[in-house]
């Protein structure tokens, strides 16, 4: 289903008109679970602390989707060009680094990164992911690398210790 381009609808209404919510994650809410019969939760004013990066990614998605239509010019635009056309909010991108790259198959992907190393990635099909990097020994590592990196370091440490102890316990001149 296409978006409605009527001037009597504001941008937010136009964004979701004709869309299936399952395919519009920026229109979702958050669920608070509670015990049966208990209060529904106390976090009425809670806001996702990373929402600014995610929202910027979704703005890029909708702007690039429009830019690819004949009405939008029929081609992918850079985040700076989208800001110049006011198709994305410049305020939403303050303190963020954004880029859109085109793949060989003609699809595109946008990455928006904040100053903490958190990256919101959105693809042409609205597939969205979000990941924050972790610092370990002064190196920036994605979370999985930290787990596997620490595991590798532990294995190397155990093997190294074993070899040192084994070689020290042999009489001199004896080898394997």
Task: Please outline the helices and strands.
Layout: H1 11-16, H2 51-67, H3 79-84, E1 97-102, E2 108-113, E3 118-123, E4 128-132, E5 134-136, E6 139-141, H4 143-168
Antiparallel strand pairs: 1-2, 2-3, 3-4, 5-6
What does this structure look like?
This protein is of the alpha+beta class and 176 residues long. The chain has two domains: 11-132, no CATH class; 139-168. Helix content is 31%, strand content 16%. It has helices at 11-16, 51-67, 79-84, 143-168, and strands at residues 97-102, 108-113, 118-123, 128-132, 134-136, 139-141. Strands 1-2-3-4 form a four-stranded antiparallel β-sheet, with helices on one face. A two-stranded antiparallel sheet has the order 5-6. A hairpin with a 4-residue loop joins strand 2 (108-113) and strand 3. The radius of gyration is 25 Å and the shape is extended.
């Amino acid at each position: 289903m296409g978006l409605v381009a009527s001037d009597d609808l504001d941008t937010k209404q136009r964004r979701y008109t004709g869309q299936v919510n399952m395919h519009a994650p920026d229109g979702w809410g958050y669920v608070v679970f509670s015990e049966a019969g208990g209060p529904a939760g106390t976090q009425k004013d809670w806001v996702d602390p990373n929402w600014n990066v995610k929202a910027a990614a979704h703005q890029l998605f909708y702007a690039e989707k429009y830019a690819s239509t004949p009405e939008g010019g029929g081609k992918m635009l850079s985040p700076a060009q989208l800001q110049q056309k006011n198709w994305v909010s410049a305020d939403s991108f303050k303190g963020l680094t954004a880029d859109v790259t085109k793949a060989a198959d003609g699809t595109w992907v946008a990455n928006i990164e904040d100053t903490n190393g958190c990256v919101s990635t959105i693809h042409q099909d609205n597939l969205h992911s979000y990941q924050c990097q972790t610092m370990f020994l002064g190196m920036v590592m994605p979370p999985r690398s930290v787990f596997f990196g620490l595991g590798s370091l532990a294995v190397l440490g155990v093997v190294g210790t074993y070899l040192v102890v084994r070689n020290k316990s042999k009489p001199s001149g004896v080898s394997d």
